[in-house]
Structures are given as structure tokens and as C-alpha cells.
Design goal:
Elements (H helix, E strand, L loop, with lengths): L7 H6 L3 H7 L11 E2 L6 E10 L5 H9 L5 E13 L3 H9 L4 E8 L2 H7 L3 E6 L10 E3 L3 E3 L2 E3 L4 E5 L2 E5 L4 H26 L7
Parallel strand pairs: 2-3, 3-4, 4-5
Antiparallel strand pairs: 1-5, 2-6, 2-9, 7-8, 9-10
Helix pairs in contact: 2-6, 4-5
Pfam family, one: RraA-like
Subunit structure: Homotrimer.
EC number: 4.1.1.112, 4.1.3.17
Length: about 200
């Protein structure tokens, strides 16, 4: 149900990514390889985009210096799995800057500490191998993440099921449709729970 006065991004942040994807006709959902690095991680925020050479994180450092509170750093790393583009130290600095989290089409490391820090990180792979810091790269340009184009400022939402991208111009409509889908599924859960004789499990 729509909350009066809530922004579209706030509404999207409270919904399962699966329902958001349903509301977009199953489009604008990242490839399944781009997933949460720790169970229960959730993020929602406007994208600060990063284009980087595979295996190189120079411009991710620059993004952490530039990130605004609530933004999600979205990194097009060429789907490379051989070098981790961030680890615990970068995640910690991002959290101190009040970054909402990371979505990386590439690899990361130090996932146990990242989980302990509570930084939502979605990535394609985990590896202990570190990155280079030579560039080139760019900030705030359109990028491709897991088969989805992300423009600067697009809303990025992630949970245990994966990542969806919503353009601000469609966010109100998508939120309304996703809320309706979620309400429909809640009714179905209640019916199943009654038949089971115990509450329906929650994620």
C-alpha cells in the first residue's frame, strides 16, 4: 500500500526485488551472477556509476571520495573475476561516507569483514587476488551491469534475489505496480499459511 508522502525510492526500498522486476515486465533485472556477497544484504539508492578497466580499481577509489550519502556505487568492471575490485578497507571508507553500498560487475574480497561492517555489496565473484590501480576509467557515465544499462542517478535496488534498476521517470509507476504485486502475494501467503496450519516463512 502506498504511504502518503513517501518517495518512490523509499517505496521501492521496502519491496522485494522480485516484485520490482515483475512490475517492469521482468526487464532491467541484472544477470543472476551479480548477487549479494552476504545473506540478508539490502540496498536502495541512486547510482554513482563507475567505468573501469577490468581488474583495476583506481576510479572506484575516486568514486568513494566523491560519493554522496545514500548513493550506490555501481561499477562496470567488465565481468572480470580474476581481481577483486574492493575489499574491507574500501568498504569501510564507503560506509564512513554513508554510501548505501556497491553493485560490481566484477569480483570482491574480504567478504566476512564486509558482512561484519554491514556494507551491502553485490558482485559477480569473490577472489583473494587484489587489483591494479592504474586506470583508465570514468565516473558518472552510463554503464552496463549484468546486462542492464545503468545511468547516473538511476535507482538501484538489491536483496538476496539480486539487483534491479529503475529509471527515476518510471519509479512511481513501478513502485505502485510492485506494491500491488506484493499485496497479491501476501494474500496468497495467508491462504497457504492457513492450509499449512502455521505462519508462512519470511525472508
Amino acid at each position: 500500500m502506498t504511504t502518503t508522502g513517501s518517495s518512490a525510492l523509499e517505496r521501492l526500498s521496502r519491496l522485494p526485488v522480485a516484485n520490482i522486476g515483475d512490475a517492469m515486465e521482468r526487464l532491467n533485472v541484472c544477470h543472476s551472477a551479480v548477487r549479494s556477497t552476504w545473506e540478508g544484504a539490502r540496498l536502495a539508492g541512486p547510482a554513482l556509476t563507475v567505468l573501469t578497466r577490468p581488474g583495476d580499481n583506481l576510479f572506484i577509489h575516486r568514486a568513494i571520495e566523491a560519493v554522496q550519502p545514500g548513493q550506490v556505487i555501481v561499477v562496470a568492471g567488465g565481468a572480470d573475476e580474476s581481481r577483486a575490485l574492493i575489499g574491507e578497507l574500501m568498504a569501510g571508507r564507503a560506509k564512513a561516507a554513508r554510501c548505501a553500498g556497491f553493485v560490481i560487475d566484477g569480483a570482491v574480497r574480504d567478504v566476512a569483514v564486509i558482512r561484519a561492517l554491514g556494507v551491502p555489496v553485490f558482485a559477480r565473484a569473490v577472489t583473494p587476488a587484489g587489483p591494479y590501480k592504474n586506470g583508465p576509467g570514468a565516473l558518472d557515465v552510463p554503464v552496463a551491469i549484468g546486462g542492464v544499462v545503468v545511468s547516473p542517478g538511476d535507482y538501484v535496488v538489491g536483496d538476496d534475489d539480486g539487483v534491479a534498476v529503475v529509471t527515476p521517470s518510471t519509479a512511481e509507476e513501478v513502485a505502485t505496480k510492485a506494491e500491488a504485486k506484493h499485496a497479491q502475494e501476501n494474500a496468497a501467503r495467508a491462504t497457504i499459511a492457513e492450509a499449512l496450519g502455521h505462519p508462512f516463512p519470511t525472508g
